[in-house]
Amino acid sequence: MLCAACRGGLSHTSRVAWPSPVPAGLVTPWVAETYDGAVRALVVGHKDRGQWGHRRVLGSLLAEAVRGATGGVDPEVPVLLVPVPSRPGAGRRRGYEATAALARTAARALRRERPVLLAPLLASRGAADQAGLGAGDRARNVAGSMHCPSAALARVGRRRSAAYVVVCDDVVTTGSTAREAQRALEAVGLRPVAIAAVAATRRRAGPGGGPTGDPAVGPGARRG
């Protein structure tokens, strides 16, 4: 479902991609791509059009982002991938949980290199569609929308607290969704150390005028 030229043009590196403005307390977000062109078509197809086969390509990009997020970490320390949950009912309508499917694919690839656990610890209480919302509205929309749905699930999370916890998503836009997932995990004693996503949207020009460009690249950017 992806031609050789498009597949060959996909990134084999990862980079830090801070949103602007940065939500207070957000851990470092790592991505493999910019949310544009073929990558945008793949994400939309997988998430909204039931194109299940795209999980392989998108999952490999997510694995690159996780490699960036875990660079320099002892390879014997387990990495715990926690996917951002879909809104209630979205997975049933689609037939699969989109982000969890990508995280599962990424975990399979990464297990050749280090111990990796997939833990869908979070559930969504529901939030309005984020399309068209600015950073402030997105933050208000998702505030308090995620939780560990049971005490048992919270206990499972705490037993894995020694792992290197990475929140996984498909796209980083304003960082509000990732920050809410981070908050919900911290509420049960898990402290994520990074965000990993397939792609980040291009940063818009600020009030002072500046050009629109690729997501910010921090000094810790590295090859995935």
Automatic annotation (TrEMBL):
InterPro entries, per the entry:
ComF/GntX_DNA_util-trans, PRTase-like
Quote the biased-composition stretches of kind Low complexity, using this chain's numbering.
213-224
Q: Which domain of life is it from?
A: Bacteria
Q: Where is this region: Disordered?
A: 202-224
This protein's name:
ComF family protein
